[in-house]
Write a structure and sequence with these properties.
eight-stranded antiparallel sheet, mainly beta, single chain
């Protein structure tokens, strides 16, 4: 439902719209009794206005004192593994393969991520969105506002998205969804875009351009009386800029100049007792959005499987454990129809300590969806100076991912009847015999 005015995101659910608009409910258990009705009631509303999509939930509890929520660190797995929580996922391209997911626990902890091909999640993707939680006598509530500018979706005003909703009640160890999800998927049930519900009646704002500018300025002052000649108040500094620009609603360009990654969080400490290199996750913002596009053969940014890792972005800007300055680069990612597109070019400077030479990194990735859940594509990567410091390195591959089609348990032959095509308003739904099912 469209709202005439922005929703107050305060977690209190006091607005009149909550009593006048019926809630989405009747969740179905995934665990412990697959297919059975959920034992605790969950009410959900989805609204939108000119700027945001709102997902609101009232989570009823028969024993509110047993709610468990103690995690506030963003993207920490305890939010969904060790806390009560509510999650929602949007399939904004309605391709039944990829989603963006959002988890919230009763104290306002949040976890968000981009999911590629229903299995590869990038939790280091952190879009801008707002949330508030609250308590009432019968349980807890949440209100969220996700700006359209934080999402990528198909061109056009009238939108059809996939949507899934999940509730976890920890003290009962109960997982429930708005659509039936087999328990064989475990905690990754929210990733299953092919089994999600369909969200209709949504209207995106006109195609305004999304532009983000992130400049930085750093300076230093150095004095050293132990050297000859002595150094006193030697001033140094540097400047740089990151730009993100939405070319269209579904294509995003990133540019960087004299990049500084000082704001990136530190890697988790790992001890390596093998002869193989460690694969650390990419946390630098320039590389994060649509990171799954650059995966090859079903493998993203980690070792494993039978397919080679053709592109590992952590090789850029690092050499033998030493930071190598990045001169500049650009990146284009997104979707065009049934194609996923990724193009990257970046150049690093010389670095004396590790003997790194100026190097240009280039990547082209093109993937097309085929059948219901499969894809084919190609990838080409090039490094102008090889890791050993001599010659160049070029790799290319052609591959595909083939998965068995799934069929949603909901009726497939019903059709939506639209009387007012200029607004996209939905009047009612007919079955195959032409009988009206609901208003």
């Amino acid at each position: 439902m469209r709202l005439d005015r922005p929703l107050a995101v305060d977690g209190r659910l006091e607005e009149a719209v909550y009593s006048s608009v019926p809630a989405i409910s009747d969740f179905v258990q995934q665990e412990p009794n697959e297919g059975a009705p959920a034992t605790e009631k969950t009410e959900v509303w989805v609204f939108y206005d000119a700027d945001n999509v709102y997902v609101v939930a009232r989570c009823w509890e028969s024993e509110p004192d047993r709610v468990i929520a103690n995690e506030m660190r963003r993207d920490n797995t305890t939010i969904f593994q060790g806390n009560d929580n509510f999650a929602f996922a949007f399939d904004t391209f309605y391709d039944r393969r990829n989603v963006v997911s959002f988890d919230v626990n009763p104290v306002g902890g949040r976890l968000d991520g981009q999911v590629t091909n229903e299995r590869q999640i990038n939790t280091d993707w952190n879009p801008v969105w707002d949330l508030a939680v609250g308590r009432f006598e019968g349980g807890w509530t949440l209100e969220t506002a996700v700006p359209f500018k934080s999402l990528r979706y198909q061109p056009g005003r009238a939108q059809i998205w996939g949507i899934n909703l999940r509730r976890r009640n920890l003290w009962k160890n109960e997982w429930s969804f708005v659509t039936p999800i087999p328990n064989s998927f475990g905690t990754r049930g929210i990733f299953q875009a092919s089994l999600a519900a369909t969200l209709v009646g949504l209207e995106a704002p006109p195609g305004s351009k999304n532009l983000e500018l992130k400049p930085y300025i750093v300076s230093s002052l150095r004095s050293d009386t132990t050297v000859r000649p002595a150094v006193a108040n030697d001033v140094d500094g540097d400047v740089g800029l990151d730009v993100k620009y939405g070319l269209t609603q579904n294509l995003t360009a990133d540019f960087t100049y004299n990049t500084d990654f000082a704001q990136v969080e530190a890697d988790e400490q790992q001890i390596n007792l093998t002869r193989f290199s460690l694969f650390f996750p990419e946390k630098r913002e320039f590389f994060l959005e649509n990171q799954g596009t650059f995966s090859f053969g079903g493998v993203a940014t980690r070792a494993g499987g039978d397919a080679p890792v053709l592109f590992y972005s952590r090789r850029i800007g690092l050499n033998q454990g030493t930071v190598v300055p990045i001169e500049g680069g650009g990146r284009l990612t997104g979707r065009v129809g049934r194609f996923s597109v990724g193009v990257l070019g970046i150049r690093t400077e010389e670095e004396a300590a590790s003997r790194a030479r100026p190097t240009t990194f280039s990547v082209v990735r093109l993937k097309r969806d085929v059948l219901r859940r499969s894809s084919v594509g190609l990838m080409v990567t090039n490094r102008s100076v090889a890791q050993a410091g001599t010659g160049a390195n070029t790799a290319y591959g052609i591959g595909g991912t083939f998965a068995q089609a799934r069929f949603s348990p909901r009726p497939a032959r019903n059709r939506v009847v639209r009387r007012h095509s200029w607004t996209g308003a939905i009047d009612y739904v007919e079955d195959a015999a032409g009988r009206r099912l609901e208003t």
